[in-house]
Design a protein that fits this description.
Elements lengths: L6 H5 L6 E7 L4 E8 L5 E9 L7 H4 L4 H20 L4 E6 L1 H5 L3 H12 L4 E2 L2 H12 L10 E6 L4 E7 L2 E8 L3 H8 L7 H18 L9 E5 L1 H10 L7 H4 L3 E3 H12 L3 H4 L13 H14 L4 E4 L4 H12 L1
Parallel strand pairs: 1-4, 4-5, 6-9, 9-11
Antiparallel strand pairs: 1-2, 2-3, 6-7, 7-8, 10-11
């Protein structure tokens, strides 16, 4: 799909309408309700997240657990009710890494459709990357030069590059914060050896793909829960505020300070860190280490945080193609 040109002109025909996007990921299920303004700008009305951890244990069993599946259905039922309350015209739901890989994913999808009447589209990694790129940059049209968008999920990490409104290419790396935590972290608090092994694995994977990635980037933009959580922690936010997250500059120095703080704490002690949600406390270190290795790869001292991402991209794509 061509995203070049004035996007707002293309969206104006939907002015005044409300749309919802739900992202079913490895770690989280995220809801966005957005409205198109008369000027053709997509702005959020309501956002919510829940962390059922669909991907927990998939490395070992290959399946989504019955407990996680039941929780996911309850979350989607709640989201559907919220959409009705907000007068949403259409709901778009996508599934990513966990639903791509779980042996029993189709069974869960059938249960959701049967019980809730909701249809879910499982999107491939490349499509996930495109949506994340379009969404993350949808309100950042003036960024210069080559842009790398980083979307660290629970089961995969997307590296997407291009210009402000021109997607060029993407690579979906088969590891994320949940996957790496389950593979490498065994102690509480973590040991230096575990951290070193995890970092070495991520660095090796990035080197393997380096020839396929852009040699140089001008700006790195980070989106999704790992990055936005780290931005909230950096600002010691008591209540998550998307307007203070979007556009925040997270420096490599601050990121290393956070890694140091997280590393030395037990899981219980991490819960006292500001802005860190309980259900993300065990996987935030792995996510932060991924992000640090990415900054090192391109020798960048900071990244720009986007509170927008996959869900905004899904709505934009659907409105321009249906």
């Amino acid at each position: 799909m061509d995203m070049s040109g004035d996007l707002s002109k293309k969206l104006k025909q939907h002015a005044g309408q409300r749309f919802a996007a739900i992202d079913i990921g490895t770690n989280t299920i995220l809801l966005l309700i957005a409205e198109v303004s008369p000027e053709g700008y997509l702005y959020d009305i309501y956002q919510e997240q829940a962390i059922p951890r669909l991907g927990r244990g998939i490395n070992d069993t290959g399946k989504i657990s019955p407990q996680a599946a039941a929780q996911a259905i309850r979350i989607l039922e709640s989201y559907k009710q919220k959409c009705a309350e907000c007068g949403v015209n259409r709901i778009f739901i996508v599934g990513t890494a966990a639903l791509r890989t779980a042996k029993n994913a189709q069974q869960l999808l059938e249960q959701i459709t049967s019980r809730l009447g909701l249809e879910i589209e499982i999107i491939p990694g490349e499509q996930e990357a495109r949506f994340a790129f379009w969404g993350a940059l949808s309100n950042k049209k003036n960024l210069p030069g080559q842009i790398l968008v980083v979307d660290i999920g629970g089961g995969s990490t997307e590296l997407i590059w291009g210009k402000a409104e021109e997607f060029e290419n993407a690579i979906s790396l088969k590891f994320g914060s949940v996957w790496l935590t389950e593979r490498f972290i065994r102690s509480d608090p973590v040991t230096n050896d575990e951290v070193s092994e995890l970092e070495a694995y991520v660095a090796t994977q990035l080197r393997c793909y380096r020839s396929q990635l852009p040699h140089q980037v001008d700006v790195i933009v980070g989106t999704a829960g790992t990055v936005t959580t780290l931005a909230a922690m950096a600002q010691k936010l008591i209540t998550y505020d998307p307007h203070r997250i979007d556009g925040f500059e997270l420096t490599s120095t601050e990121l290393l300070n956070q890694i140091s703080e997280i590393k030395k704490r037990t899981l219980i002690e991490r819960l006292r860190l500001p802005a860190l949600e309980p259900n993300r406390a065990d996987v935030i270190l792995a996510g932060a280490l991924i992000l640090h290795q990415i900054l090192k790869t391109w020798n960048k001292k900071s990244l720009l945080v986007s509170d927008r991402g996959l869900r905004f991209g899904v709505i934009i794509h659907k409105l321009l193609t249906t």
